[in-house]
User: Fold this.
Amino acid sequence: MKKVEAPTLEEAYQKAAQVLECSISELQCEVVQHPSKGILGFLKRSAIIVATSKKTSLSKHKEKVSVEESIASEIIETVKSETIKKETETTTIKETPNKKDVVLDSFFEADRVVEEDEVLENELSEEEKNEEESVIYDELAHLIEDQLKEMLSHACFEIDIVEVDVRDNTALIFIDGEDAALLIGKEGYRYNALSYMLFNWLHTKYELFIKLEIAEFLTSQQDMIRNYIKPVIENVEKYGKGKTRSLDGILVQIALEQLREAFPDKYVAVKTGKEGNKFVVINEFNNKSHA
Assistant:
């Protein structure tokens, strides 16, 4: 995939065909910016397209991703088997009677010592599990980050920052660079498409949810929704129920999170209208405290 700039669209197509070493009929193009002659020579704009060749093969990339995913699976299986082994050893130790305890004069004192040992073992086991979970998350974060960098390297966008952190079954992804705005797209349509693609990949492979931040787009959307739902919150506090207007893409998820935070004791869910539009409702339906 190449980004090409030229005075006219025709010249841009010809230039893209030369760069990709194919004919114009074999190009797949997306117009990022239409050319404009401007007024009296001012505000003149060139044509900008994003082009790929239909002949381009991604077999090498797919093979590399497959190998990396296999490595991730091996890492997870190894950690799981180590965990099962440690749990089995701990269980065996607990089931082995301590002969010294049997002949102790103070029976209740012996019981107290055993209980303290079990509490200590449980605490150590929990710490070990947390450490193992942290190791898995760190390995997955590095793996996902490398795969994302590889994927974006084939795109025409100038992206120089790709960071991934995995915590609490969620992949926190941060992307930034000179072309971050182009990666977001008009009204966030590219952002929504990329979020959907990454969610399907990471949730299917690793059962992870995602939070994608490109430049400051997610933060700005969160602030915008926070201001929008203020009257919705006031309405719910007054009447006990309410709903948002139709929301697109990531906005409905942001509104859902913020309203659930505002009303932890109410039923807050995403609903779909007759025309496929999505919105968030808040009421007492299915509320356990009112069951």
